[in-house]
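thought: fold this chain, then report.
action: predict
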Amino acid sequence: MNTFIQILFIEDSESDADLIVRELARAEFHIKSFRVDNAESLKNALQTGEWDLVISDYNIPGFGAMDALRIIHEHGKDIPFILVSGQIGEEEAVNLMKNGVNDYVMKDKLARLPMAIRREIKDAAVRAERNNALERLRENSVLMKQAQKLANLGYWFWDVRVNTVTWSDELYAIYGVEGNSFKATFEGYLSLIHIDDRRRVESIIINALKDKESFEFEERIVRPNGEIRYLKSWGAVRTNEYGMPIKMYGACLDITESKKVMEALQNNETRFRSLVENIGDIISLLDVNGTVVYESESIKNMLGYDASELLGQNIFMFVHPDDTRQVTSAFSNALLKAGIAPSIQFRMRMKNGDYKFVESTGNNQLNNPAIRAVIVTTRDISERRKVEEAIRQKNLELEKTNNEIDQFVYSTSHDLRAPLLSVLGLIDLCEDLNKGNEELVNLYDMMKTSIYRIDEVIKSIIDYSRNSRLENQIEEINARTALDALIENVKYMSASKGIDFELKIIDDSIFAADRMRFTTIINNLLTNAIKFQRENEPNKKVSVRFENTDSLTIIEVEDNGEGIPSEKIDDVFKMFFRYSTRSIGSGLGLYICKEMVNKLNGNISVQSKVGEGTVFKVVLPRIYLNKHVLNEEDITN
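observation:
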């Protein structure tokens, strides 16, 4: 059978190395080899290759076998080293063997070399396996010590015959004593046990010796510094051939931290139970069928039952028959998904037969191994229902009253406008009959001005009433057509003479809004822009700018009129506010604009400078027919 082997030759003669290779090939070795003849090339070969065997000549000019051995050992390599030399003395060969050469073969007796190689490779494999086993043993020992340290676990042996106790290092650490100062005897061990546990522990150990049985117990120890620790101990007894106890051995685990955790959990459980039993709400645990597996004592105060009366009962038996379907449906939905389910309101039967309105919230914890139930929290809402019903009735009354007021305002306003129009007609007739009487004509003008003011107030009241009563009627609007019509309409105002009107439409002019509100808003802004022009301004201008973005519709009305003082900017949208002595209106126009813009979920703002003009900016959410696109932050800004 061919044996594959990698050989590193330390030889200055290539022909000698080839001779050895041919000899080994005849012995059915399959060889990969490399030859070096100095220290540097040997070091490189050891770093770059893996070698099964080193075959070295004894003496190479400037470099010998002892030098090669030293270099190999410095590299930490355990490679079989066979010396093949033409001449070497017996004493020198023995010295080389003592320093690490595994074998030597004379060059004129190479037939012996294959057997020596097989033996040394086999021995090297045995050494490697033994070294690996020792290394694993050392690693396991380190891991065991580390595990004991991490687990706070120590072990001990007690030779009963001579009363000597052997402790592991970790056990000394657990007890907080030093190995060189602690008297390791049974009595010394007992002295470290808490005084309240000492007699019990001593009895357990003495009985274990007597009965020759293993044991397990918990105890408290007191360290020299006064610290109390909790331990869990295990032990067993070893007997001789006559059945007499000779040794006891075991282990101790420091369970102080787990004890603290358990105590904290128990305290938390006690607090939780106390909380549950003393709150007004009912806490119930239900299985998948709605059977009560736990009921808080608070049910006594709310429904009159003792908690024990509901245990094992189906909760749906206590639900009003008219509400059963709703409750069972909600419970079934809660079972489909872990976590909190929506709250429901229903009636539960009290012990006296009456029903009480309650509100329950389910929390599916069936997959929680600590609970495995649906937690239901139930609270009494009967008083809340009474309050809510009272509020509902009050809201209905207020709504009725508001509707009546709105109807009254609307009807009255319309009824007032008809007589005013008749009075205006009569004044026009009087003017025609008295054209030559300048004094009467001036009186007629003053009368008409007062009537116009009254009519403006009435129209404002009508606009306000319509805005408060009517919901938005969204329709598609062509901004160019609508704004052109509004501008043409205000041009008939006497104050609009000499004003240059400009309309700018940026890209798309189609948008959606409530036409009545949009028209009223823009008409009021245009009217204000006309009213507050500067009389001495030769180039009076009013411009309207319209723009659609992906999410917004923006309308700006700008004038170069008298402007608004900065201290009055914050008040312009207030009811009945007039920011100029020239204002003869109702003070409702801008207030109504603000209310209508709010109704459209938009925003209106103003920028102005005295002597230069004013810009009102209306920002509305862009509406795509039935798709509402709204960027609230953009509108606010």
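thought: worth noting. The first helix runs from residue 14 to 26.
final: tokens above.
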